[in-house]
Amino acid sequence: MPSDTSNRVGPAEATGGEQARPKKHPTIIYLLAMCATVGGALFGYDTGIINGANLLIKDEFDLTDAWIEHIVSSAVGAAAVFSLVSGVIADAIGRKTAIMAAAVVFTIGGFVMGIANGKWMLLIGRITVGAAIGIVSSVVPVYVSECSPADIRGRLITLNQLFITLGIWVSAMLAAIFQELDDGWRYMLGLAAVPGVVQFLCFLALPESPRWQVMKNKIPKAKKTLMQIRATSDVNEELERIVQSLEEEKKTK
C-alpha cells in the first residue's frame, strides 16, 4: 500500500515558507578581527624577513656566525619573555590598549632596524620587535575571542594563524625583490614599521573588549560596546552571561 504523504511538512513549510538562513553579523566584527590580526601578519613578517636579510647584513657589518645567531634568535627570546607577561599587561591596561602599544613597539623596532648603523643597533631593533611579537601572540586571540559572537568565534580567531602565514609569505616575496638593491636589507627590516602605524590608526576607532570592561566594573561601557559590535540594543542577556562567567572565575580562583 502506498504511504500517505499528504500530512507531511517539508522544511520550507516548517519554517513559514523560508529556509533557515545563517545569522548576519555587523561589518564592524569582521573589521575588528582583520585589524587585530595585522599583529599576526607582523609576527610572521618579522620572523621570516630576517632570513632574507641575513646575508646582506653579514656582509654590511662583517658579522661573525655567532652575531648572526644572536640577531636572529633575539627576537624569539624577547617574544618568549613578553608572552609570559602579556596577560598581566592586557588585564592591567586593556586588550585594545595592549595591542595599540604593541603596534607602537613594532613601528619603533622596524624604524630602528631600518636605520641601523651597526650590529648593536640591529640587535636592539630585533629585541624590540620580539617584545611586540610576544604581546600580540597572546593578546590578539583574546581580544578577537572576547569581541566575537559565539557562532563565528572560532572562524575569526583562526584568522590570526592565517595572517601569521601570510606575513611569512610576504616576507619571502619582499626578500626576493630587495635582495639585489643597495641597502636592500634596510627596506626588508624597515617596512615592518608600516603595518604597525596602520594597525594603531585603525584601533583608534575600534572598541575595547566588553569582557575586560566588565572585569573593571565598567558595566555601562560594556553594554555600549556590545550594542556597537552586535548592532542591536538587545544585549542584556549576553552582558549577564559575561558577568556570571567572571563571577564564576573569581570563585574558582
In words, what does this structure look like?
With 253 residues, the chain is mainly alpha-helical. It has a single domain, classed as MFS general substrate transporter like domains (Growth Hormone, Chain: A). Helices cover 77% and strands 0% of the residues. It contains 12 helices and no strands. The protein has helices at residues 11-14, 27-36, 38-61, 65-93, 95-114, 119-147, 153-178, 184-190, 193-203, 210-215, 219-230, 236-252. Helix 4 runs parallel beside helix 6. The longest helix has 29 residues, at 65-93. The protein is elongated and about 65 Å long. The model is unreliable at 1-20 (pLDDT under 50).
Topology, pairings included?
Elements: H1 11-14, H2 27-36, H3 38-61, H4 65-93, H5 95-114, H6 119-147, H7 153-178, H8 184-190, H9 193-203, H10 210-215, H11 219-230, H12 236-252
Domain Major facilitator superfamily (MFS) profile: 32-253
Subcellular location: Membrane
Organism: Elysia chlorotica
